[in-house]
C-alpha cells in the first residue's frame, strides 16, 4: 500500500504542480492579453490623435486661405472705393468743364442775339 500511497501522493503533487503551471500560464496569457489591449488602445489613441491633428491642420489651412481670400477681397474693395473716388473727381471736373463750356456757349448765344438785334435795329431782316 505504501507504493499506492506514494503514487497517490506523487499524483496529487503533480496535479498540484500542473494546477500551479495552469495558473501561471493563465496569468501570463492574461498579462499578455492586457498588454496587447493596452498596446492596441495606445495605437488607436495615436491614430485618433493623428486624425484629429490632420483635421486641425486642414482647418488651419482653410482658415489661412479664408484669411488670404478675405485680405484679397478687402484689397479689391479698397481698390473699388479708390476707383469710385477717382471717378467722382473726374465727374466733378467734367461737370465743371461742362459748366464752363455751357457758360461760354450761353455767353456766345447772348452776344450773337445782341448782334442780331443790332442788325435788326439797323433794318436787316432775316
List the helices and strands and how they pair.
Layout: H1 2-121
> Roughly what fraction of the amino acids lie in strands?
under 5%
Low-confidence stretches: none
H/E topology pattern: H
Number of DSSP-assigned strands: 0
Indicate the radius of gyration in whole angstroms: 53 Å
Query: Which percent range fits the helix content?
Result: over 70%
Which structural class best describes the helix and strand composition? Answer: mainly alpha
Largest sheet: none
Number of helices: 1
What best-fitting shape do the alpha-carbon axes yield? rod-shaped
Mean pLDDT: 83
Summarize this structure briefly:
By secondary structure, the protein is mostly helical.
Question: Which terms would index this structure?
Answer:
1 helix; 126 residues; rod-shaped; mainly alpha
Q: Could you explain how this protein is built, in words?
A:
The protein is rod-shaped, with a radius of gyration of 53 Å. With 126 residues, the chain is mainly alpha-helical. The model has no long low-confidence stretch (mean pLDDT 83). The relative contact order is 0.03. The chain is built from 1 helix and no strands.
Amino acid at each position: 500500500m505504501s507504493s499506492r500511497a506514494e503514487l497517490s501522493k506523487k499524483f496529487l503533487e503533480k496535479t498540484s504542480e500542473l494546477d500551479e503551471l495552469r495558473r501561471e500560464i493563465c496569468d501570463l496569457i492574461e498579462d499578455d492579453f492586457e498588454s496587447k489591449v493596452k498596446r492596441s488602445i495606445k495605437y488607436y489613441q495615436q491614430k485618433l490623435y493623428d486624425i484629429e491633428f490632420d483635421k486641425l491642420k486642414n482647418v488651419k489651412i482653410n482658415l489661412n486661405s479664408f484669411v488670404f481670400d478675405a485680405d484679397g477681397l478687402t484689397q479689391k474693395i479698397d481698390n473699388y472705393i479708390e476707383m469710385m473716388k477717382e471717378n467722382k473727381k473726374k465727374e466733378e471736373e467734367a461737370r465743371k468743364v461742362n459748366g464752363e463750356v455751357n457758360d461760354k456757349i450761353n455767353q456766345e448765344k447772348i452776344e450773337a442775339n445782341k448782334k442780331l438785334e443790332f442788325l435788326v435795329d439797323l433794318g436787316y431782316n432775316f
